[in-house]
Design goal:
Layout (H helix, E strand, L loop, with lengths): L2 H14 L3 H14 L12 H7 L1 H4 L12 E7 L4 H12 L6 E7 L4 H12 L4 E5 L5 H11 L5 E4 L5 E2 L3 H11 L5 E9 L6 E5 L6 H4 L9 E4 H7 L10 H12 L3 E12 L14 H17 L3 E5 L7 E5 L7 E7 L3 H14 L5 E7 L5 H10 L5 E5 L6 H11 L4 E5 L3 E3 L4 H9 L4 E9 L5 E3 L2 E3 L5 E3 L19 E3 L6 E5 H6 L12 H11 L3 E12 L13 H11 L33
Parallel strand pairs: 1-2, 1-4, 2-3, 6-9, 12-13, 12-15, 13-14, 17-23
Antiparallel strand pairs: 4-8, 5-9, 6-7, 6-8, 10-11, 15-22, 16-23, 17-18, 19-20, 21-23
Helix pairs in contact: 1-2, 1-19, 2-19, 5-6, 11-12, 18-19
Amino acid sequence: MNEAVRNLLKRAKKTLAKNDALREAYHLVKSSLRPRYGKKRRNISYQLWIRQCEPLVWTRQCKQKLQPQISVVVPAFNTPEKYLKPLVASLKRQTYKNWQLCIADGSTDESCAEAIKQEANSEARITYKRLAKNEGIIGNTNQAIKLATGEFVGFLDHDDELAPQALYEVVAALNANPKADFFYSDEDKISDDGSHRSLPFFKPDFSPTLLEGVNYITHFSIVRRSLLKKIGTLRKGFEGAQDYDLILRITDATDRIVHIPKILYHWRLAEGSTSGSIENKPYATTAGMRALEDHVQRKKIPAKVLEIPELPTNYRLQYKTPRKAKVSIIIPFKDKPELLKKLIPSILERTTYKNYEIILISNNSQQPETHEYLASLKDNDKIKIFEHDIPYNYSAINNFGRSKASGDYLVLLNNDTEVITGDWLKEMLGVASQPWAGAVGPALFYPNNTLQHAGVILGMNTVAGHVWRHLHQDALTPFGRPYWPRDFLAVTAACLMVKTSKYDEVGGLDENLVMAGNDVAFCLRLHEKGYRNIYWPFVKLYHYENTSVGSYQSAPPTDYDNSMVYYKPYLLWRDPYFNPNLSLQIEQIAYREDYSGNFN
């Protein structure tokens, strides 16, 4: 634990001694650090995590009042015996016994068909149908679904495997959420010979924004059969993205969606599979785009679906910009004219969206160079300059800026930033104008082009941290990639757009938070009103962090106290947009090695 955090905890302990509620929050944070006392932080390997931590994540002593039959459907086609036997064995090993395996076989190789039939005959819970002809993955899967008698249907490819506890964990999750319609889990890859597991994907809870950028749900997904009957099974014409199309239709039809944060599915790195490379199925990108376009039409989303050529099976929604919407860009500062000389021209010269105003709020600026530069801006009709010479209070200064703003939308912007993408306002405005949207934040970069901000995780670095900090935007991590758009509990106010009426609805920034935590608290209030806060990676700015104030190390102790009132419900892996199998102490993403057998 670094010295700054240790000093922070010491100060917090003294301050919280007189406040019972906040004292409890302090101990929550401290307990998350306890395994680290006296140790150097380290990144353990996935193999070590499997041996050391995975046995502790499985549900224990779950009293299952509901024990539905789960029908696992498998489309088979000339399935090699080396894949078939492990697949069937993974069902036979299930610790939950009320299952049915439905195999629809379109094999043209008689030896493969005979091997599948023999495996089916070895277990009464396997229902097997030899098809008159191969109908492809969509037709074969639909034929397997027709064989299902269970209340829930799960999907398994013919060369993959389930973890022994997979179905038990689904039923445990159902008992905790009896009305749930759809479940999905974390997953990893398994080598062709089944000897080695790698490349885990520890997912967030349901994130509509992420799903509209990439099919992050994939495996293991289980749907209530009655809902499947209502929306229809797999649709022809979506080959290569048939699961993406189905998941979009399911999540359009229900909000009773449960993420099981456990590795329940092992996706085989088989020859010719998309698990190895999407280049094995280049048509999947086009099919996925059609699936997303259908989703956009169903939901009446005012957006175009764009393909990202350099990122197969990744997409972006380009939202329609509201007509005549004015944006007010609020920039507080105290001197540092060299920063303003970099920021202001980047806005004026690069911004393609023209209906905006810049509101500069000088807080106790004293340097002659600052006043000289401000004087040079006074003739620009897009710029308004105000002085607000109160003792420094970031929240109060921004609230003052809002009082001077005439825009329909606000951008809170640090003076130590610089615009990179010219369409930054248009892109953020398209998202922020959606009725469900709260705050919208872009990708912020250090001068060396590594990430400074790609979303905020509550509880990370004791209170809140920037996930993926110092990584490149195309990094592959166990939490996915930073170039995916996502929902988060919070984004940073170093650059944040929000509709003015929503800013007012939650009362603006909390002026009890002088220097730190005010942006996260603001986003949490939006979240609690039912709005989603969005990280939008298609907008990019530089952020020359550490040239402005705002960290807990330099903030008054009251900021820590007051922010805990907001933060407490989301600490210790209670942030739904993170994953409890990952460490809260390393922003670059690492496996959680201090697992105790509980998620909370």
